[in-house]
Amino acid sequence: MPVKPPSRLFVVINALSFQAVWWTGVLYGNNAILLSLALLVVHFALTPNRLQDLRLMLMLGTLGGLIDSLLTWLGVFEFSSLPIWLALLWCHFCLTLNASLGFLKLSPLWLAALLGAIFGPVSYLAGARFDAVLLPMGDWLTAAVLGGIWLIVMPLGVVLAKGAIWPELAPKLEER
Questions:
Q1: Can you tell me the distance from the alpha carbon of 126 to that of 31, in angstroms, rounded to the nearest whole number?
Q2: Which residues are paired to 78 by β-bridges?
Q3: Cα(143)–Cα(27) distance, rounded to whole angstroms?
């Protein structure tokens, strides 16, 4: 099933929701979980693409959680407690790919890679400035590692949002 274009209002709501989840997660950690969950409910109540958004969130959100877990295990990140807020942030990020970041699906993949390589690390570095995460390897090395990861993750997310991977899954889920 093709993704329906979201309304301008929904795109704005999506962008503001992501920012609210990022800021509250970074500033309040796991105390922001209820807001993040509430905004997920709002998203799925308003989106014209429930099934596609759910599929994208499950696939890319799981990958993001695994990446952050691996980076924590490898000592790239340190958290004071299990960052459930970060897993929810991944969910919200995934939901931007069919809405506020939906323009990337019409752009060349190199643009998604470039934006990912820049803004992925910037997001984590900014989080570190607010003590949401510690970066034991230092800013520059961490930024290089994250830049390489996001160089791949962002275009992969765009490809997944386009439905280019497992597009046959949507009709089967819809029949249920």
A1: 19
A2: 134
A3: 21
DSSP class of 165: S
- CA-nearest of 59, 85, 83 to 134 is 83
Q: How many whole angstroms separate alpha carbon 63 and alpha carbon 142?
A: 19
Helix, strand and coil content of the chain, in percent to the nearest 5, comes to: 75, 0, 25
- The pLDDT tens digits for 93-114 are 999 999 999 999 999 999 999 9
Q: Tokens in use for 77?
A: 């990140």
Dump pLDDT digits (tens) for 135-162.
999 999 999 999 999 999 999 999 999 9
Domain ranges across the chain: 8-163
Distance of CA 155 to the CA centre of its chain: 12
* pTM for the predicted model, two decimal places: 0.90
Does the pLDDT at position 170 exceed 70?
A: no
